[in-house]
Structures are given as C-alpha cells and as structure tokens.
Amino acid sequence: MRVPWRDRAWDQFLCSDPLGNSSCTLLANIGPKRDDEYEVAHAGVGIDVLEHDRLPCLSERATFMSPLGYTVTKRHPYAWNAALKGKIHPTKVHLPGYAFEAVPFRWLNRQSLNDEIGHDRVPRFNPAAEDFVDQSLGYDRAAWVMDGANQRAVLDAFFEPVEINHSLVFVYLKHSPLQEQRTDRLLVGAARVTGVTKPPMWEESDNPPFSSSMWETVVRHSLRPDMSDGILLPYQQLIPLLDEGVDIDAALAWAPQGRLNEFSYVTEHLSDDAAIEALGALERAALGMRDLKLDIPDGALDWITGQTERLWQSRGPVPGLPGVLAQIGVRDPHAGARAVLDAAADRHPWDVLNTGFDDPNTFPQSVKPHLAGVPARVWNRAPEETRAVLRLLSAFDISREQVAMLATGDTDLPMDHAELLDNPYFAATCTYGSPLHVPFSTVDRALFPPSHVTWTPAIPDEAELDGYQDRRRVEALITDVLEQQAAQGDTVLPVDEAIELANAMPLSQPPNLTGLILTGLDLDQDSLRAADEWSPLHAVELADGSDGYKLSRLEETAEVIRAKIAEQETRPAFGALSNARQVLDDALDRNQLVSSSEDVDELEERARSEKATGLSALHDAPLSVLIGPAGTGKTTLLKALVEYPGVAAGGVLLLAPTGKARVQLETKVGLPAQTLASYLTPSKRYDGETGRYFVLDESALRRSYSLVVIDEASMLTEEMLAAALDAFTGVGRLVLVGDPRQLPPIGAGRPFVDLVNKLRPESFSNWIRVAPGYVELQVPRRQLPDGAQGERLDLQLAAWFGDNTRGAADDSIWSLLEDAPDHPTVRYESWGDRTPIKALTDVLQDVLGITASEEGIRRFAESYGAELNGQWINWEPGAGTRAEEWQILSPTRSRAFGTVELNRHIKRKYRADDTSWAQKTTRKANLPGPIGPELIARGDKVMQTVNRRLQAWPKDGALNYVANGEIGVAIGRPVPVTKARKRGLRLNVEFSSQPGFRYSYWPTDSDQNVMLELAWAVTVHKAQGSEFGITFLVLPARANVSRELMYTALTRQKDKVIILHEGSLQELRDLAAPWRSETARRLTDLFVAPQPFALEIRGTARRFDRKLLHVSANGTPMASKNEVIIAGLLDQLVPGRWHYEQPLVGTDGREVLPDFTIAAPDGRTVYWEHAGMLDLPDYARKWELKKDWYANNGILPASEGGGELGVLMWTDDLKGADAQAWLTYAAQVLGVSHHADNYATAADHARRATKKAAKPRH
Predict the structure, then answer these.
(1) Would you tell me how many other CB atoms lie within 10 Å of the CB of residue 484?
(2) Beta-strand runs (E) in 695-844
(3) What are the tens digits of pLDDT across the range 837-871?
(4) Would you give the end-to-end CA distance of the chain in angstroms?
(5) pLDDT (tens digit, 9 = 90+) per residue, 1101-1119?
(6) What is the pTM of this model?
C-alpha cells in the first residue's frame, strides 16, 4: 500500500511544515490539487476540524495511522462525457480510523489486465461489456475497466486471496527525503489486515448506459502507535541525523529486489517470498534505528519474528509453479497451481504432479481440467533434464517470463540446463543486468528455508547442494555483495569487507563466513587464480598485499580499457610543435576567443604559455588527458588542435556523455559532435531500453579516426569507457577531456580519475603542469560578465572544494566574501530568518528584475525564452536556445529547499495563467493538456528524465533521441478548435541541446512513465555537464553533500553564481573537508591497486582509498600531499604538539585556519603555513596580504624574531617538495635538534598509519 511522505507519523494532524514536504506533491493525486495556502494556515491541525475535500493527501492514505476517520467526495472521471453527464453524481467515500483506501490500479487497467495479469484470473470478466462502454462513450481510448460488473469482478478477484486477520499489508513510499540517491521504494511498516469493505456503486440517475462501481476498497489494519501488532518505522526522526551527516543507511528498509510491479501501483499483491524479504528489511532497519538511539518497541520486533515464521510455512515449496505450468501450456496457470496445491494437502505438490503425469487419468478431478491433455503430453515428451530444470524453477518465486528466460537459457550470460542444475545460483549470477534479473535472495530462499518449516524444498536430485556453506552458495553471495557495491561505485572490495557484508545479509541460514572457510571452499585468492572453471569472482591484490575480490565482468571491462590504453600509448608520437605559441596565438586571434595577442597582460601571458605547451603535448601524444577547472580554456585548446593542419585529415570524432555536453562541445570546437549513446547504439554497444553499455567480440565493426575527443570524461563509468574504446581501432590521437574534481560517475568506477593519476608525473620541471600525455590547465581566463578580463572569485571559491588546489593564500576568498558578499562573479547571501522560498524570490526579483506583478510575470517568461508581443507572451521556436541563461540548483529534490518545491513555487507565482489554460477546454482555442503531477504546460522550462528514442520535427537532420538531463522549453501557440480537438493536442518541447527541433509529448494526469519534469530548478547531479549564464545555488546549513558535488555546483555558471545559504560562511567552508570526497571513497584497480583504510568520522569508521586522500600519520585528513609531509616532519620534531587548521581569530574578527599551529618547547606559538604556488603573481599577492594580516595581529615572521603573539614560518613549492630543507628550517625555528639519520618520509608514516587505521575493520 503506497502512502505519501509526511513530516509526522501519518497521524490525524496535517504536516507541521506543509511547504517543507515537497515529496508528496510528486504523486498525481496530490501535486495538482494541494491547496498550499490552506494547509500552511492549518499546519499541525487535526483533520476532525478541517474540510476533508480540501485535503487531497487523505485519499492517498496520508492518515492511515489516524484514529479518526474521514469522508471525501469523489467525482467520476468520465462524468463529463455526454453519455454520463447528469447521470453519475459525486459520491461520498467514508473511511474509518486506522484504514487505507485501497485501489488495485494495475488490475483495473485494461492493458495490464489483459497482457500481464490475464483475464483467466478474473473469471467473471466480460470483454464485451467493455466494448459496449466504448461505444456508449464514443471514446475508444479508455485506459481503465469501466463496466460496473467488470469492475466488481476485478475487485472481487483481487481481494479474494485476502484472509482477514492473517493476511499482511505492507506500507511503502515512492518519494521521500530519504530516497535522493535511490529510486527503490522505501518500506514504512507492516500490519495485519483486520477488515475489508468493498466499495459502493456510484450514485446515479436517469439510467446511464452502464453502471459504475467505485474502486476505493476500505482495508482496516492492526497497527497502532504502541506497535504491539505491527511495525511503523519513525523515518521522520532520521531527517535531523541525515542533515548532520550521520550514516543512516542501516536504518532504511528498502523494498525487495525485482519487485517493481508490486511496489508501483498503489495497491498490489505481495507473494510470501516478497513478504518474508520485506519483513527482514523492516527488522534490519528497526535494529539500525536502535543503533542510532531511536526507540523501536520490543513488541514490534517480536511481531516481525512471529509473522516471518508463519509466512515461511505458508510459502510452501513451489511458489514458482504457475510460471512452470505456463511453460508446458497450461491455459490458466494460476488456477492450475491453486488446484494442485489444494489437492496436495499435506503431500508434496510434486508427488501429485509426478503421479498425474505418469497417468493423467489419476489427476484429481480439480486438477485434471488444467493438466490432463496437452500439458501432460508436453511434460512427458520433454527431456529428463528439462523436467528437472522446471522442477527446480518451481521452487523459485519468479514470474512466468523469468521461468521462460531460465528454461531457454536466454540469460545475460548464456547457460544450458546442465549448468543450471549443477549450480542453481546461476539463475542469479547469470542474469545481472537483465530486466528479468533473478535476485540472489530469491534463489537462496528456495534452496535454504529455515529449519522450522515442515515442507521439503522442490529441488531435484541433480541440483542438490552441500549444506549452507556450499561453495556455489557462498560464491553467489559474495557476487551479490560485489554487485551491490559496484552500484555504489566500488569495483574492488577487500576480502574482510566482503565477508562482513556477506555475513550481514538477511538469510534464513546465515553463512557465518571467515577467511579460513573461504580457503576451504577454494574461494581464496590463490584458488581463484588457479581455477580452470569460470567464476563470477576475480581475485585481486590490494596495495598493502592483502586480498580483494572483484567481479569477473568488471575485470573483463577493465582489461579492455587497459589494453586499449596500452595500445594507444605504444603508438608512435607525432612530434612536438616548435611553433606552438604562434599556432596558439593565431588560433585565438582567428576565432576571437580572447583579446588580441597584441594586448596580452601578465596573467594572459601565463595562460597562453601553458596552453601553448599543452597544445604541443596534445599534438605529440597518441593518448592524452586534458584537464583543468572551468574557465581555463580546455575547449579553446581543443579547437586550436583540431584546426592545426593535418590533425583532422583522417576524420575527427567528438563525443560527450550527455546531450548538453554534446552541444557545448560542438559549439566551441566548431565540428559535429555526438552523444556517447547515439554513437554506440548502431553498433549495439549501447542498449537504450536498459541503459547498458557493451563490449563486443573481435569480429565486431570498429572505426578509425585521426582524432577522437571524449569530453566530460569524469562522467564515464568503466563500462561506458570500455564500450567507447571498443568501438575504435587505429585512432591517431585519443584525448579525454574533463575535470577530475567534479562528481564521479553514477555507477562502477572512476576511470577518468584513474587515467589522470596514471598519466600525471611525480613532478614537473616548472609551474606548467604539462608532460607527455598529460595537460593540466591552471590559469582561469573566463571573462567577467561585462566581457573584461579580471579576477574570477567564483572560480577561486570553487577551487577550495577541488582536490589539491588549496594553499595558505587561498583562504582570502573567505575574507573577501565576509567583507563584501556581492562581487561580479559570486554572491553569498544567507537566508537569515527567511524561508528558502522567500530568499530565492527576493534574489530572483533582484537579479532578473522581476516581481509578482503582471509585468514581472512577463519579464520572468522573457528571461528564459518567451517573446513579448504587446500583451501576449509567445513561446515560439527558438525559445529553447535561451533555456539555460539562468538556472536554480539544489543538492536535493525534496524538502523546502529541494528542486520540487522550488519549481512548484515558481509555477504558482509566475506560470499560473498557462497552467490554468492547459487545464481547461475552451470553445475558441486550446493548449495541450498538462503533463503529470507537476502540471507541465506550454511555456514551462522542463527536463527530460529518461534516455529515449523519439521522433523529432523537422525530420531533416534530426537526432531523434533525447537524453536524460536535457533541458528545454515547452513551446507552441493556442490551437483553434477548428483545427484540432483538445484531446488530440501534444505538447512540443524544444531542447537547448537540439535547437530548431521539437519533440512531442502526450498529456497525462498520471505519475507513471512521465518523461518530463519542471526544470527552473534542477539538482546539481542533473546539472553536471551543463553551463548556464547565472546560477542560483540553494544550500541548507547542514547539507550532507560531497566536496565533488560542491565543486560541480560552483562551476556551472559562465557569468555568476549566487549562493543562497541557510548557514554561515564557516559552515560553507566546512563542506570542503577532505573526508567529504566521494571519489576517494571508491575503491578501483583500473591501473593501480587501491589502498583501503578506515578513517573515523564523527564516531563512525568510513573506508577510503588512501591514494586519493591526503592523511597524516595520526589519521588527520589534509588538503595536500605536502601538508602530509609537513605533518610527518612535525611528528619527528615536536610530536603531539601541533594541530591542523586550528581556528585563529584576529582582532578584526576575521577567522583564519593556519595550516599548522605548533606549541614550541620554549612556550612560543608557531604558525606554519605552506604557501604553495608563490610563482603565480596573483597567488603571491594574496600571500603578502595574508602575511600583513598576521603582522597586524602580532604574529611576525621567524626571520624577524617573531611577534608578541606568535611566530610565522612558511614553506613553498618553488623547489618542489624539499622535505629535508623543510625539516632543517623547522628545527631551527622551533629550537629543536634533528638528525638526518632519523628522517622518515611521509610515505613511511603513511604505511604505518594504514596498518593502524585498518585494524578497526577486523
């Protein structure tokens, strides 16, 4: 039973903060109907004193825990039709307390009833009656069962299996603040069904052509606040913990894998298997909540235990029997399976079946109509091996489609019957990635039920396993663990961590694994390496020599990447450019990309110097990475390379992972570009329906080019990169472009970061970071909004969140923002006592020059593409080209500061007219009807939410494909009724990435399969790969975000970023902590083995790859490798007497964070700053200002004898990381002795720290 998110425990009171709950508005029955003003005015008030018909959440079961009932008036959805008008009347629905309105939408949908459920499961269903309904309505597109008798037949069939006081009801969420990172359904609780009341017929008069039944069946339940007869997880209490950065994953109960249908249609059946798994998830989450000090009564856990034991017995040995019977031709497999189970009574169902198949005349009378005849002949003619497989599959709780897939061997990894019988877990292992994947838990429940059940598993002798620690079971279990971790980004897992996660899996017979047991099962590393037979597991060695596991499929993917990269590296070099600077200057002048080469200031000179060196390196190397922050000119350099004579002679291929990035690449480089998906689809290396990428065999077609460029490469998973590289052969130059500081990809690995680290040299000869195959641009030259060149403070702020970009002078950005929060490229504004909506409204009015007045509404429309013609606002072709002139960003979809509520606010305030028009049908001219719960209408800014092949207009030159994340504007003019009826109108959208083309979308009032969402505000994840003119970043005070997300958010703007922050500048600065790195959290071994270690963050151990996180010997995360070296030196000289980034407040109130604060043995306080890149003029200037600040606060350089309040010392990178010189200098300043013989490198300290830090994980 689906319920909406509430900020209360689904009781009789309205939400305490209705506008803070945007999750519920994503449901079609709430979003378009919620009266925000009414709910805000009555926040926290009981429903007993409110108007029930003004609360759409009631009918979405929002008060299922209320002791008070309610009454709402329903209106027939077709009452407007001429055949029913005035004959079917509004009818009241009465709900008691502690009850649900249950509507089995999938069963009442004509198509799904026919295609998925089958009319055979509704014996009284009369198709002819539906034909009569269509004739009566004059409408042949009705999606729903409409005849009253048929509706009653469907409802009776649906609720017939429900046993009062025995059947269970599970409650789940589709949208909530806890589901930002996953689209899975979230279980809320469970209870017994204590009553079912069928709905009444609609009130009618004057003999309508057909009767109509209401659908809202009343289901009462046993759950009460004390949880003595059910369980309800207090998710609302997790929200403050989430905001504080607490890991709450263990307190979330996710719906069972592979059960999307059961958790997608409001009310649906759940099998015993799925219910067992759901109860297990609720139990684990309840225990996780207890670990977080949240109260879960003992009675709730006892209830789960009792219900689980009962369900296991009820499950029986053959939940997959209907699918097996369908495979042998049984017409009504569900009825046939029920007949077999009823006839079996206390016998095993297969005893009944085997006896009957031997002599069909001996089938019980109730079974004979189903199985005698053709099904029996099919069974008896089938090979023995096939029959054994079908018996095995009857033990799995799987669909008939899954049975057919496994029976035919049409799996992701092909397998035959003998292989499946030899290893039943191949049903799971060989179907990962398939839409019909069989979860490991489904197979395991069939093979290893708990000991208390009285039935025997339906496992043929050919498929017997050797106990609960059978090698095949353990191998499949570890594989499942690795698959789950791969979805989180890891491609490698330490053996100890794999064991820990495997033992934590909720299995009826826990495996109790240890390293010794794995060795005994030949699943240790040596055995896996020596094995001749295929295994889904691959053995790897970690950096410290310990063992790790990896999926064989990901190792095969990695091998493709390694081989292609190695092949490209061994190709002969093309030669450096002796005149690179002249070539660059000519290209810049020719394309007018920057000011004339005759007018070059000092910073522009540095920018051109590094670009010229980079251009020469790109020309020379067959393989290159081109990296750098936004505004450093990566695409400028690419254009210069492409234009150089001979480079493009053999063909140029420009690729990008998203449609938005494709357009930018094409525009800036001046050549056609393609999305990765559109390029790989024709060769079948990409499947648009599943979103999967593939590597093909040696016989597949591969193309050669003189130059291949892949932009925004940080967004590529290992599988995406492997598929792309597999599509090429004989590439002259391969250049991967991007910024490794941005968000890592959604999926397995971080291949771009790994490749960058592989190609980056240990050191550079000067300040220019260019080497063979490696080009890093550092000097930002993005213009100011007025077109002039100057200091880009927005990029300086972003650099604070980038890896290895901070130094002692970098923190000047914070003092600048504190002194003057509004600058040409960045503005910092605290919400103060305003709501995020109010703060955003104020800033939009200020920056865009809009108000809530009529003129303000027109100005708002014009700001993203509308054309103003007198009093009219027109949305013409071309509007899409302006869709990205400004953009609101948020780290989340939900909450008051999330994109959903921000978009709702904008639509209410500025877009009400077109929305209202779209909802009406007029006699003159109409707009297409609105789409989805957000009521998307003409003039709205929208985003595509799925990858989909669609027909574009005009046809010539059309891509006919829209990628997830593309942003556009809904365009079109009102259509006179003389040209088309309203129901025939589709909404046209022009995307900014495909200007001049439009895609059409049918209106719908459903929240299912809606491909568009409002996009004035989008999440930072969705904005990756895009560029906007101005961005508005809405950021809560305690945002649980990664530093990569912050960096990405702060680099989306071309002109200016405006940060609307609930907190303080210091809280914003805290988000740059090194431990917040998602990239460093991932473990991969694409080119080098990872070095996992545990770091305690706020009392919880979190695992990172030490090679991507700078950590001192005592476990302190630091901003750079050089700071780690300094920490090691201080451990030698003054152990225990130093602190890292300890706040220092000056007399002016400014707070700085000295790199190291040291209590010298003689009582002085010494501040050690690592000044970094003093060879950069701008940086050196800032460092001088910081030294002045120290001096003004009584802290003078050591060379001057120090000051009254402390001594300042500093080091820099001018001669590289000269640790020995730093050691000598520090000893002198601190007044301590040192001996070179005792000098230990930072790496030595790091190795010791790894072993110490890793211990707590065992």
Answers:
(1) 15
(2) 707-710, 733-738, 769-771, 774-776, 826-830
(3) 999 999 999 999 887 678 889 999 999 999 988 77
(4) 41
(5) 889 999 999 999 988 998 8
(6) 0.90
